[in-house]
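chain and backbone:
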Amino acid sequence: MDADLSGSNHRSLTITVRGEIDLSNTGILLQRLIDLAHSTTGEIALDLTQVDFMDCAGLRMLAAINQHIKARGGSMRVVAASPAVTRLFELIASSIALCEYHMLYTVRSGASTPTLP
């Protein structure tokens, strides 16, 4: 796992992340991203096309760096992702959609406790 600046100007940075992102290295990667992000208060663009694997710890790390960047007045977005990362994002989006459906179903059905539809 590694992360480097792959482009920058006075208002934005592009950071390319490579390798595998999992529980064993998210702390190191988070610190590396924080160090790189300190050079701007503008937009941080993450290029994840060279990430071979990412687990839920990687998602938590992305949320943490996003929160850090927002606290400094900046913004972050993933501008490109590998098939492995894209698949993880799709699974998370599907999970969120199912939870939203379940909550809506429970409210509309008048159930007092959450139940599976």
